[in-house]
């Protein structure tokens, strides 16, 4: 089909998605065409914009009721939700379709996230990741889960279970968790259960999608100030796991090596740092959050963190990340008397100083 189609034909296409028991092959043809129309990441198709309300009804109806075409319908929704206007339309549609006796569409499509429908699960997870990027939207989606803890536990089980044939279909669970961990309730569920520990092995996984989602999830968990001592405790051993992706092949003398946790000592000559600059930034942000309180700063200093950050700063090609690294090092190399506060979160920084620091950073980066 040509992408420029008459308006009346567009309406026929959209309405065909809402016919109960319609020809599945015809629906597939329509959905494949809609996948092309919705795929442009830079501009919205006029036919899609003009018929968005009816289109969303049709796509969600197929997703809810037609397993043969559910994946294609969901991928259309993934494309639409990748643009801000489309995302807002979908969220409005979902809010307007919550019935009095259940949690609405979200609770229905979540049923696909299981081992019986792995390919549909992958598409639904991609859609949920798009819908939960913004914190307010994440709250709306999470509230529509129904039995929230049961669903979160089922996601974790799918994510950590080895299934060579299908496990790639569940990789987006890590990104969904990272988005949902914008919410205090989800962070506390992850921290207070044993599920956070189950995510740690994925920090150094070759699968970049899973690794990225887990790093972002851990970063968000570091916003729980009251849990910093536990996050840095030997029970979890999080600090060396955050530092290892930032460490390179540099060799330290015996005295310096003894300051480092065992996992960071005598790293091989071919040790590579995390290649994704966004993930290096997330790791540095997590460490910065964990440095908010005096007793936590002392733990971080005592484990040789400065050595890893010093070598990272020498190597780091991204100037913005160099600045983030410098700011963290500046915290760690100062004495507590110089810092002058037990908790950075208690500081009330005047607006004029915030503007001054911002200008200093901009000057550094220019």
TrEMBL record:
<dbReference type="InterPro" id="IPR011989">
    <property type="entry name" value="ARM-like"/>
</dbReference>
<dbReference type="Pfam" id="PF04063">
    <property type="entry name" value="DUF383"/>
</dbReference>
<dbReference type="InterPro" id="IPR007206">
    <property type="entry name" value="Protein_HGH1_C"/>
</dbReference>
<feature type="domain" description="Protein HGH1 N-terminal">
    <location>
        <begin position="117"/>
        <end position="280"/>
    </location>
</feature>
<dbReference type="Pfam" id="PF04064">
    <property type="entry name" value="DUF384"/>
</dbReference>
<comment type="similarity">
    <text>Belongs to the HGH1 family.</text>
</comment>
<protein>
    <recommendedName>
        <fullName>Protein HGH1 homolog</fullName>
    </recommendedName>
</protein>
<dbReference type="InterPro" id="IPR016024">
    <property type="entry name" value="ARM-type_fold"/>
</dbReference>
<dbReference type="InterPro" id="IPR007205">
    <property type="entry name" value="Protein_HGH1_N"/>
</dbReference>
<feature type="domain" description="Protein HGH1 C-terminal">
    <location>
        <begin position="286"/>
        <end position="339"/>
    </location>
</feature>
<dbReference type="InterPro" id="IPR039717">
    <property type="entry name" value="Hgh1"/>
</dbReference>
């Amino acid at each position: 089909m040509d992408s420029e189609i008459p308006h009346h034909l567009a309406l026929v296409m959209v309405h065909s998605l809402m016919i109960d028991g319609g020809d599945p092959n015809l629906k597939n043809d329509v959905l494949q065409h809609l996948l092309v129309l919705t795929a442009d990441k830079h501009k919205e198709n006029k036919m899609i914009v003009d018929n968005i309300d009816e289109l969303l009804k049709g796509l969600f109806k197929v997703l809810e009721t037609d397993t043969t075409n559910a994946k294609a319908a969901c991928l259309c929704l993934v494309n639409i939700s990748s643009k801000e206007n489309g995302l807002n339309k979908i969220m409005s549609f979902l809010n307007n379709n919550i019935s009095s006796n259940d949690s609405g569409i979200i609770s229905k499509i979540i049923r696909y996230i299981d081992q019986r429908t792995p390919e549909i699960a992958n598409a639904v997870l991609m859609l949920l990741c798009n819908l939960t990027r913004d914190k307010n939207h994440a709250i709306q989606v999470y509230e529509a889960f129904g039995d929230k803890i049961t669903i979160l536990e089922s996601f974790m089980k799918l994510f950590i279970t080895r299934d060579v044939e299908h496990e790639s279909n569940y990789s987006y669970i890590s990104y969904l968790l990272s988005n949902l961990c914008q919410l205090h309730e989800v962070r506390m569920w992850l921290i207070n259960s044993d599920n956070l520990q189950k995510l740690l092995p994925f920090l150094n996984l070759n699968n970049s999608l899973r690794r990225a989602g887990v790093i972002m999830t851990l970063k968000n968990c570091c916003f729980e100030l009251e849990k910093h001592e536990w996050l840095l405790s030997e029970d979890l051993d999080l600090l060396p796991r955050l530092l290892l992706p930032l460490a390179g092949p540099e060799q330290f003398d015996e005295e310096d090596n003894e300051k480092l946790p065992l996992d960071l000592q005598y790293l091989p000559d071919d040790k590579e740092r995390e290649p994704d600059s966004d993930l290096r930034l997330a790791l540095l942000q997590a460490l910065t959050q964990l440095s908010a309180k005096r007793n936590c700063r002392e733990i971080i200093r005592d484990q040789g963190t400065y050595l890893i950050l010093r070598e990272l700063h020498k190597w780091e090609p991204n100037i913005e990340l160099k600045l983030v690294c410098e700011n963290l090092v500046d915290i760690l190399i100062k004495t507590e008397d110089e810092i002058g506060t037990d908790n950075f979160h208690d500081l009330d920084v005047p607006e004029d100083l915030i503007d001054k620091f911002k200008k200093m950073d901009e000057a550094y980066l220019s």
